[in-house]
Amino acid sequence: EVQLVESGGGLVQPGRSLRLSCRTSGFRFGDYAMSWVRQAPGKGLEYVAFVKSKNSGGTTEYTTSVRGRFSVSRDDSNSIVYLQMNSLKTEDTAVYYCCRDNGGNSRAVEFWGQGTLVTVSS
Amino acid sequence: DIQMTQSPSTLSASVGDRVTISCRASQSVDKWLAWHQQKPGQAPKGLIYTASNLQTGVPLRFSGSGSGTDFTLTISSLQPEDFATYYCQQYSGNSTFGQGTKVEI
Question: With contacts defined as CB-CB under 8 Å, which chain B residues touch A113?
């Protein structure tokens, strides 16, 4: 059974940093691309960051609003994906979901974690 | 970025109804289109990828069609557990989602 378990969310002041972690199990982590998708309270889904499998170069991509502030990385030895969030803004407040693609570094999300809430407020 | 527009935003239906949700892309995304279902208070769930392929375990009453810029999600006979919000996701380039369609009673 594929499991994606996020952690690291919480309340943080604007301008500060936070690192989210996603521990995975139930599949060969190294074979899949991973991504982070967020959902602001009462709003829709926004694709935030993407990292290809190491075999495909581990290339990363970001949505425009977080590029230069957020960084996605992966630890294939421990099957964990991270999202480092710097210079946080109030508009970054959202539930952050860790996601696995359906193969081939496609960015099509097949599995979703349960999410972790990040609240940016003074 | 490619913009995804879903219609309608809200859909009222009854159990047993055939339901159709549309998703239009601002430019061609070929077949690189997925659909997701989200129930209140829950994480989304993947339903369909490459426009028409069901994810493992998804009931056969769900189907997807389309290519290029126009796509459709169809539920052939709406069940009580299908009342939810549905999102399309393009992944031709940087991925983006539609704004969602709420299917309500």
Answer: 43
